[in-house]
């Protein structure tokens, strides 16, 4: 077996495992994919972010279609004010962050990415022990305060999504549940509706970078890893609800924290 075939095989396997992890909790798995792309497959940081962004875009688009059976488009349209509110902030955040990532030093970008990975780990661990809440009522009674809070949260989530190349569901879902009082299943679909345009903006912004050539240069590897991610996400979704969500979120939080540490060690060695 050639080195290229072996690498593609690893991409298929790692994509499947990551996709299954994401499918179990309704995420694209990009937050776990980035450390693998940097640590295992040795992609430079910015190239790994762009690669991850392209992969996330494809996986989230497929997930959005699959979820239509559970949450129909009519329900999403009925709650479109939430999507519009968060998008108003996330699109600006994604454009801003992607532009700065292209001009930022590799050392500075590495430091920010490690910090964001640790932050996402803390978010998952907090959700595991504290929970998302079940009040189903908005956090603020004032529609003005609610809209402003949505703008701020959307902006910050857009920044995280652009810098890590992720969909942002791990932040969007708790935001939608806690801030707007939405049901958890509905929040999952609404987060995808916010993620898709946000990722497209970040992806378009990154297309102006020389590092965007990683998509063409790694085309074969990309397709194999994407196939694995889609298969894994489908398998993971079949087991959705079997494993307690708090136990799963706690385990994933620990895995993400370990990934952040390993990513930091790899970046220091280069």
Overview of this protein structure:
By secondary structure, this protein is an all-alpha fold. Helix content is 80%, strand content 0%. The protein contains twelve helices and no strands. The protein has helices spanning 3-25, 30-39, 45-66, 73-78, 80-103, 106-130, 143-164, 169-180, 184-206, 214-217, 219-238, 245-269. The longest helix has 25 residues, at 106-130. The chain is globular and about 60 Å long. The model has no long low-confidence stretch (mean pLDDT 82).
Structural class: mainly alpha
- Helix percent reads over 70%
Task: Please give the count of helices.
Answer: 12
Shape: globular
SSE string: HHHHHHHHHHHH
Strand content: under 5%
* Rg (CA only): 18 Å
Major sheet: none
Spans with pLDDT under 50 lasting ≥5 residues? Answer: none
What distance lies between the first and last C-alpha atoms, to the nearest angstrom?
28 Å
Mean pLDDT metric: 82
- Tell me how many strands there are: 0
Any descriptors?
single chain, 270 residues, mainly alpha
Entry summary:
The protein has 12 helices and no strands. The protein has helices at residues 3-25, 30-39, 45-66, 73-78, 80-103, 106-130, 143-164, 169-180, 184-206, 214-217, 219-238, 245-269.
